[in-house]
Amino acid sequence: MSAMAQKQKAKGDAFMADAEKKLTKSSWFTSKEKKYEEAAELMEQAANAYKVGGLNQEAGEAYRRAAEIHRDQLTNLNEASKDMANAGECTPYFLVLIHVEIVPDPTTKTEIWITFFSHALFFHRS
C-alpha cells in the first residue's frame, strides 16, 4: 500500500470512527435527525477519502452504510439512491435489488411509480 493510500485510509477510518460516535452518542440538545444526518455525511466523507486512496472496497462499504442511514433512519430515498449508486461505482461486484410500488395519486386520479432499493449485496472474488 502506497503512502498516499495509507494516509487516505487513516483519514477514512477517522471519519468512520467519528460517524460511529455520532450514532451511539445521545444528547438533549441535538435532534435524532440531525445526529443521523451528521453520521451519514461523515460516512460519505470517509468514502471519498477511501476512494482517493484507491481503497474501493472500503469506499463502497462506507457509501452503503450512509445509504442505509438515509433509507432507514432519515427516510431520504433520494440521498440513499445516490449513495448506493456511488457504492456501485466503487465495488465491481455489487447488486442493488430494486423495489417498485405503484401508489394511486388521489389528486390526479393516476398512479405514481415509487422506486427505491431494498437490499444491496456484495459479491467478492474468491
Draw up the topology in text.
Blueprint: H1 3-24, H2 32-52, H3 56-73, H4 77-90, E1 94-105, E2 110-122
Antiparallel strand pairs: 1-2
Pick out its properties.
126 residues, Serine Threonine Protein Phosphatase 5, Tetratricopeptide repeat, flat, 20% strand, two-stranded antiparallel ribbon, 2 strands, alpha+beta
Task: Provide an overview of this structure.
The chain is an alpha+beta fold and 126 residues long. The chain has a single domain, classed as Alpha Horseshoe (Serine Threonine Protein Phosphatase 5, Tetratricopeptide repeat). 60% of the residues lie in helices and 20% in strands. It has 4 helices and 2 strands; from the N terminus they run ααααββ. The chain has helices at residues 3-24, 32-52, 56-73, 77-90; strands spanning 94-105, 110-122. It has a two-stranded antiparallel sheet. A hairpin with a 4-residue loop joins strand 1 and strand 2. Helix 2 packs antiparallel against helix 3 (56-73). The longest helix has 22 residues, at 3-24. The radius of gyration is 17 Å and the shape is flat. It starts with a helix and ends with a strand. The model is unreliable at 112-126 (pLDDT under 50).
What's this, in brief?
By secondary structure, this protein is an alpha+beta fold.
Number of strands: 2
Largest sheet, spatial ordering of strands: 1-2
Radius of gyration: 17 Å
The CATH C-level name is Mainly Alpha
Largest sheet: 2 strands, antiparallel
CATH topology: Serine Threonine Protein Phosphatase 5, Tetratricopeptide repeat
